[in-house]
Amino acid sequence: MKQRITIDPITRLEGHGKIEVFLDDAGNVANTYFQIPELRGFEVFCLGRPAEEMPRITNRICGVCPEAHHMAASKALDDLYKVDPPSAAKKLRELFYSAFYCTDHTTHFYALGGPDFVVGPDAPAGERNILGVVAKVGTEAGLRVINTRKKNHEVIKIIGGRAIHPVAGLPGGMSKAINEEERKFIEEVARENVEFGLWSLQVFRDIVLQNQAYVDLIVGDVYTQHTYYMGTVDAQNKVNFYDGMIRVVDPDGNEFVKYDPRDYIKHIAERVEPYSYLKYPYLKGVGWKGLVDGKDSGMYACTPLSRLNAADGMATPKAQEAYEEFYKTLGGRPVHHTLATHWARLVELVYAAERMVELVTDPEITSPNVRTIPTEKPTVGIGSVEAPRGTLTHHYETDENGILTKVNLIVGTTNNFAPITYTIKKAANALIHDGVVNDAILNMVEMAFRSYDPCFSCATHSLPGQMPLELVVRDAHGEIVDHRSQYCTPT
Amino acid sequence: MKTLVIGLGNPILTDDGVGIYAVRALREMLPPDVPVDVVELSVGGLRLMETMVDYDRVILIDALWAPADRRGEVLVFDARDMPETLNTRSTHDADLPTALRIGRALGAHLPEDADIQIVAITAYDVLDFCEQPSPPVLEAIPLACEAVLDLLRVPVT
User: Fold this and answer.
1) Which chain A residues are closer than 8 Å to B10 by Cβ?
2) pLDDT in tens, A213-271
3) CA-based nearest residue in chain A for residue B77
4) Contact status of B11 with chain A (Cβ, < 8 Å)
């Protein structure tokens, strides 16, 4: 008898993802599909609007990373209007963006992915949350997380012009500069971020690396896959979040290609599968071989781990030390252990904090010269940044009045759709045997997925009331043989 | 009591934006001498909790996902009636009850659950892009505003 197991939707997933695991007659995994709902028609919604609205509209796509969309949109507008922002504006944007990284990576580590490790993968679901982390690490952790979020949100508000959905990015730069008083405050926050990042790395060492069971889990075969890795690098091939070239390395860690983000279409193609609205992007230069890993498969990942793998190092000293420790501990570059992404995220947190200090102490950062007025007619604009969960590309085309005629957005999680699905498939294969299904196994499958920090958000903030979770087991004829659910969608 | 009224939602996701549109309408109806702060928010969980810090009372206007044939109803309840789930339901956040527990555990001054009142407008289409709610949800806005004024003991004119 064949069974179909449905986990729907995934705990801690914004939006509603669904994992379907099909079992064979023996109760072992035959196939695994990962489905997500489409974000219906956002690109169409944008057509006919003035392009300069995009930094303000696209940041409404998502309540999770509005800052990433705001930056990618602003950069796409620079390109669209063929205008180069003054260097002070670029630094200000990068400072803003680094503050955003500090809040986002902090939240993910302590509230989301972290609980799997810090509290423990076998802990009851009710304890695997930030309160569980606070209980284990101490109240200081909670206070520091809240404090880090609060202060960096203040920085985002100062530079971005608004607390949650920023408005300061314009074609050619920023709408306003910062003054010395604001700069001093941001410097203080940046230095605290560095301390906090280093402290978080120590938490990881103490709680995760000192626990052999966790280390075994990280380096075990279940959560290991050999893919290509993508990330944005600066001129020295160091990780950069705001600007640079896109570099892809092969599963052996050798550079496969390095290209200008404007040329993405020459290097990335999209595979359509009938069971999902979301397409699988893959490397054109390798080709689509299905959901398999290895050098012959065009599947690539872009995550914090991928960015570290795709770069030759970090551009700041303490992050570089953390980078070296990371690879020394895990056996050299590239690292193929998906769960190591949580650690890589902390290395990036330290980099974001150190980069903030560099930028905020740059004499130019308070320069009032933050805007170059566009004078050219708009045609095509492509801009990209590294969103915390992967490379984010905005591509706009307009008529000569700047009215949008084409919009294409490749968001971070879309890039990772193939490796996410592959990871889940592999985890399910290893963790579901003989038809045995229990909550711990389901969580292990979800852990595979959560390490990608995926975001299928459409910023729906309706009160759901309760956390929806559904488990359906079907036989070969589609009959439900087991059904467990809590708090599911109204029908 | 220091009071905050929050309109919650995403203004480009059809019915999900109703909380935002409701507080915009409410601003027009509120007499200037009523001492409340009114904000629009598009976030949940931790950021929502953080917004409530240092207030004694919060009235939250939000869409409540419901079956299509029950769109446009106005429900008033408070945070004591919100289910206590300790799992976060977003990839980047905690749910509101968890966020409130965290905030209180860390010593933040937050309203009691009984003083976090929710004026919910039942909504269905929260996934399609549109800059205004569906007609039944839109029509419920005056009713929701009256419910807020009633909670604030402001006479409805």
Assistant:
1) 60, 63, 458-461
2) 888 888 988 889 999 999 999 999 999 999 999 999 999 999 999 999 999 999 999 88
3) A465
4) yes
Specify whether A167 is located in the same domain as A30. Answer: no
Shared domain check, A429 and A364 = no
Decide if A70 is inside a domain: no
Distance CA(A86)–CA(A423), nearest Å, equals 43
Cβ–Cβ contact A328 with B under 8 A: no
| Domain residue limits, chain B | 3-151
Residue A153's domain comprises 84-223+338-373
Residue A311 DSSP SS3: coil
User: Does some domain include residue A356?
Assistant: yes
A465 touches chain B (CB under 8 A): yes
Q: Any chain B CB within 8 A of the CB of A191?
A: no
Contact (CB<8Å) A459/B10: yes
3-state secondary structure of B79: helix
Helix (H, G, I), strand (E, B) or coil at B129: coil
Number of domains in chain A: 2
Instruction: Tell whether A125 is within 8 A of chain B (Cβ).
Output: yes
Tens digit of pLDDT for each residue in A428-459? Answer: 787 777 777 655 566 666 677 778 876 654 33
A127 and A219 both lie in a single domain = yes
Are B46 and A463 inside 8 Å of each other by CB?
Answer: no
In this structure, the answer to whether residues A351 and A209 fall within a common structural domain is yes
Judged by a CB distance cut-off of 8 A, whether residue B98 touches chain A is: yes
Put residue A349 in one of left, alpha, beta given phi > 0 → left and psi -120 to 50 → alpha.
alpha
Whether A44 is covered by a domain: the verdict is no
**Got the DSSP string for A4-38?**
EEEEES-TT-SS--EEEEEE-TTSSEEEEEEE---
Q: Which overall architecture, per CATH, does domain B3-151 show?
A: 3-Layer(aba) Sandwich (3.40)
A466 reaches B (C-beta below 8 A): yes
Question: Residue B118 and residue A164: Cβ atoms within 8 Å?
Answer: no
Q: Which two tokens stand for residue A336?
A: 């193929």
Alpha helices in A239-291 (DSSP H): 264-267
- Which positions 34-73 of B are in contact with A (Cβ < 8 Å)? 41-44, 46-47, 50, 62-67
**Residue A98's Cα: distance from chain center in Å?**
14
pTM above 0.95, yes or no: no
Q: What is the CATH number of the domain that holds A148?
A: 1.10.645.10
Looking at the structure, tell me whether residues A19 and A168 fall in a common domain: no
Residue of A114 and A434 predicted with greater confidence: A434
CB B18 within 8 A of CB B137: yes
How many CB pairs below 8 Å do chains A and B form together? 165
Q: Per the CB < 8 Å rule, is B127 touching A458?
A: yes
Same domain, A364 and A464: no
A99 and A163 in a single domain? The answer is yes
Tell whether A410 is covered by a domain. Answer: no
